[in-house]
Design brief:
CATH topology: Rossmann fold
Shape: globular
Distance between the termini: 21 Å
Number of helices: 8
Strand content: 5-15%
Helix content: 40-55%
Radius of gyration: 19 Å
Amino acid sequence: MSGLTSPVPYDQTKYLAEQAVRAGARRGLEAVILNPSGIFGPGDEKFTQIFQRVAEGKLPAAMPARTSFCDVRQVARAHLEAVERGRVCQNYLLGGPNTTQLALTEEIARQLQVPPPRGEAPRTLLYLVGAIMALNALRTGRPPTLTRTFVQAMTHCWYVQSDLAIAELGYRPTPLHTLIEDTLVWMHARGRVSLPARAQAGPVDLSLLRPLPHGSTVHGPA
């Protein structure tokens, strides 16, 4: 299944955006295409909600998701390296440990020393909840927190291999336990989660390699 034939609008927009970049490259645009998978890590606010839900015991079950999780810091570094080392119009997959959301949340719970989710939520149940929330959204006018397209996106297998990015851009995937640990330390420093005393550590690395050269173009995630 390609992005164009995907039932998920997000996938379709990514495919169309990449085709626009390729069209520009045919007219002389020097663009390198980076395709990261599931991004999280210190400094990235978007993914931390799942950490807080595990910490607060508000995630009874994990999504039946299969994802390659990548470190936001390494993704940022890969963008900088792509400016100087990437091949024009070449796709570089930026992944990391290929695992399940259940395994991710179990490791988060282990490091926080809290109970983990009890298992994976059945996909049929998620679709049912999404349908009920969609009907409720029509009544209340408030956007649903779970939709059919979200379930479709989250339950697709997003495993990737990053061999080309490793070889040509010096990309370095971060082990899952290290990435989770660094994220929790960063969140703890901001009062977002409480860590066991033995898990508390100093500041994590948020630095990037160098400023992006003026006028350079790298096509990556929105």
